[in-house]
Design goal:
By secondary structure, the protein is α+β, with helices and mostly antiparallel strands. The protein has a single domain, classed as Endonuclease/exonuclease/phosphatase (Deoxyribonuclease I, Chain A, 4-Layer Sandwich), CATH 3.60.10. It has 7 helices and 14 strands. The protein is globular and about 45 Å long. The relative contact order is 0.16.
Length: 254
């Protein structure tokens, strides 16, 4: 089963760029997109269920903001769209679906750069994520928690670590949470197969950073330890355009 994660920075915008031609060619079994910025009511039938996929959406209360969507080629079941915490659930940042016994959590984690309040919100969202999915794995569930985490974990994961040491996205508290996440039993699937530098998933569009590969690896597919042996490969599709992020994926034996 091929699973793809991609922050599309606007689902309707990326649709106009014919990006789904790539999806149709690559044919992932499960495609998870973040930052959809769309409600289902704003989409066409083809956009909801494109190219043989069945789509499932989690929307923010505010139009044109946040949101995630999961598309599957085979039948799947929909699970949670929140943690049961009102303010954390109001931005459409979480969608859990079950595919062949594997729970795929599609998450668009908050960005903490705007101000102290948003950084605190991000950290509370992180804590809720850790608690929720640790309980799932403790009960024996297999889980993939993928999406835009909005944090680079190690200096290898961004071009200028020293320059960004005091900026949200590379703050010690954010990076320490990822350490705790890993200690709780979640594996960075890409680093299982590739330990090389200069593998990024996001580039600043304003400075044309992608042309020079000045980027950050802030998108991940973390896999629970009880299914890591099922992961046969992991990759970053840096050549796919259409967003300031690129797609990344794993292949799982089911």
């Amino acid at each position: 089963m091929k699973i793809i994660s991609w922050n599309v920075n606007g689902y309707r915008a990326v649709w106009k760029k014919n990006v789904f031609d790539w999806v149709n060619e690559f044919k992932p079994d499960v495609l998870c997109v973040q930052e959809t910025k769309a409600w289902e009511e704003q989409l066409t039938k083809e956009q909801i269920n494109p190219h043989g996929y069945t789509g499932c959406f989690s929307k923010a209360e505010k139009k044109g903001y946040s949101g995630v969507a999961t598309f599957g080629l085979k039948p799947y079941t929909k699970g949670a769209t929140g943690f049961g915490v009102t303010d954390l659930d109001s931005e459409g940042r979480l969608l859990v679906t079950n595919h062949d016994g594997i729970n795929i959590a599609n998450i668009y984690f908050p960005n903490g750069k705007q101000n102290k309040t948003r950084l605190e919100y991000k950290m509370r969202f992180y804590e809720a994520t850790l608690k929720y999915f640790k309980e799932m794995t403790d009960s024996g569930e297999k889980v993939v928690v993928l999406g835009d985490y909005n944090t680079a974990h190690k200096p290898i994961d961004l071009t200028h670590p020293k320059n960004n040491a005091k900026i949200s996205g590379f703050l010690p508290m954010e990076r320490e949470w990822i350490d705790r996440w890993i200690d709780a039993g979640f594996v960075d699937s890409f680093r299982k197969f590739n330990t090389e530098p200069e593998n990024y998933t996001w580039w600043d569009m304003r400075t044309r950073a992608r042309d020079r590969n000045i980027g950050w690896r802030i998108d991940y597919l973390f896999v629970s330890e009880n299914m890591i042996d099922q992961v046969s490969s992991a990759w970053i599709n840096s050549g796919v355009m259409g967003s300031d992020h690129c797609p990344l994926g794993i292949e799982v034996k089911v």
